[in-house]
Design goal:
Elements lengths: L2 H34 L6 H13 L9 H31 L3 H36 L12 H9 L2 H28 L8 H27 L5
Helix pairs in contact: 1-3, 1-6, 1-7, 4-6, 6-7
The chain binds protoporphyrin IX containing FE (HEM).
Length: 225
Amino acid sequence: MTWFSNLYQHAIVKKAIMAVSGLFFFGWLAGHLLGNLKVFQGADKFNAYAEFLRTMGTPLLPESGVLWLVRGLLTAAIILHIWSATSLTLLNRRARTSDYEKRQGLQLDYAARTMRWSGYLVAFYIVYHLMHLTWGNVHHDFIPGDPYANLVSGFQVVPIALVYIGANILLGFHLYHGLWSLFQSLGLAHPAYNPWRRHFAITFSIVMSLGFISIPVAVLTGVIS
Ligand code: HEM
């Protein structure tokens, strides 16, 4: 196998890993959004739902088993996603040897760079978000076992609500490009379906981004208190 075809095969496998892990993360996020929108139904419903997620088991899994299974899969998906993205960037750099290839790559670089930076920022946001609403170690008034109160008092701090709003706008861009590239990476793209792909990517990223943003906005405007 030549040096080039070897590199190409690696790239295909890594792209597939990036697409599948991204798809898993996307599905989880859609569920997370639907769950979080329960906040509009009030404290009792939201806290009961959070408690259900924390304690849910199945005939095969003990109490809290589902939570830990999903957490494990999510952690694996995030690690694989970041690993495949980083190593594809390095592969790209190594593959680009001539000036012509460098020039051709400029346009692709723009999308890839945007994805990289939005990806890093979303990753930072996730760590901050866990410290804020799950562990509570950066929350000014964290009450263990009362996610509704933690969410409301957390977003009543304007700079924090703005961080969430900004991060979820960035997430929207990241999702848009990720969903757009997904079919290509999985070898399912066809020029005839490109308009459909674009509509799909735009609609889902806007719905996710606006859905998440609606929560800090609802707290800031007093709709949720
Ligand atoms: C404004 C939007 C969001 C709100 C209000 C929100 C709310 C919450 C809450 C209340 C929890 C803690 C539940 C608990 O431990 O009782 C949580 C956990 C979490 N959130 Fe979010 N979230 C938002 C957006 C996001 C986004 C965009 C991501 C990822 C990009 C994300 C990733 C996570 C993760 C990974 C956890 C931990 C899940 C677990 O412990 O199993 N969240 N979120």
